[in-house]
TrEMBL record:
It is a multi-pass membrane protein. It is found in: Membrane. This is Peptidase S54 rhomboid domain-containing protein. Pfam families: Rhomboid (PF01694). GO terms for molecular function: serine-type endopeptidase activity. It comes from Aphanomyces astaci (Crayfish plague agent). GO terms for cellular component: membrane. Residues 42-74, 116-231 form the Peptidase S54 rhomboid domain. Keywords: Membrane, Transmembrane, Transmembrane helix. InterPro entries: Peptidase_S54_rhomboid_dom (IPR022764), Rhomboid-like_sf (IPR035952), Rhomboid_protease_S54 (IPR050925).
């Protein structure tokens, strides 16, 4: 997937920048998003480029695994897989040709192919979720007087893809942390609840409450989910 390759390349640039001050300055200027950077310094492009940025292997690995797992599930199969899938399906209204002609009967079959997104729809959801995530994160940070706080990561876009998957396949079973079985619909509701509560705690006036949650951009996650829900073809 080209998106994973792009994220990998940018992740490599961040790793190299740890040893080169000039590249580090370039990365923080052009691949990290903040309210001050967008509103004051007019670095609007960072609303997009920051969504390809990861500094730690854990952050990068989790996001890329989720992108691969759920992205592959909402996109149609490859041409080879699709043709194999079609060959295995009985033709609707066709004859059971594997039976002797004397025994052949007309059979009707209803083929329920899983719902998928075409590449343009997927790209629209991914890009819109990424931008909405960056915009909401920057605006909320600005309103909280934290205009110089940077946000990076593909999490907003990935949560958009997760949201699309859960809406398209609500009854499919997922394993939370590989242990707890949940339907996709339950996973969607849980993720929205966690991101909502995390956003409130993270931006709470009381420092003790804010300290209860890790340094995760929950607001950005919600922005990505909201965007995907709004534009997903119904």
């Amino acid at each position: 997937m080209a998106l994973i390759a792009t994220n990998t390349a940018v992740f490599g640039m961040w790793k190299v920048s740890q040893r080169h001050a000039g590249l580090a300055k370039f990365m923080w200027t052009h691949f990290a998003c903040s309210f001050h950077g967008v509103a004051t310094e007019r670095r609007v492009h960072t609303l997009v480029t920051s969504a390809f940025s990861h500094q730690t292997p854990l952050h990068f690995g989790i996001n890329m695994f989720m992108l691969w797992h759920f992205g592959s599930a909402v996109l149609p199969p490859s041409n080879h897989d699709a043709s194999s899938f079609r060959r295995r399906q009985p033709i609707q209204g066709g004859t059971s040709s594997w039976l002797p002609s004397s025994m052949a009967k007309q059979h009707r079959y209803v083929v329920h192919e899983p719902r998928t997104l075409d590449s343009r729809e997927f790209a629209k959801i991914y890009a819109t979720s990424a931008i909405a995530s960056s915009v909401l994160s920057a605006v909320v940070s600005g309103l909280r007087g934290m205009g110089h706080v940077y946000s990076i990561g593909a999490s907003g876009a990935v949560f958009g893809v997760l949201t699309a998957y859960c809406i398209m396949h609500p009854e499919r079973e997922l394993l939370l942390y590989g242990v707890l079985p949940l339907t996709a619909d339950e996973m969607l509701k849980l993720s929205v609840a966690v991101n909502g509560v995390g956003s409130v705690f993270q931006h709470a006036q009381h420092r003790a409450l804010a300290a209860l949650v890790p340094n995760v951009d929950f607001v950005g996650h919600l922005g990505g989910q909201a965007a995907a829900y709004a534009i997903l073809p119904k």
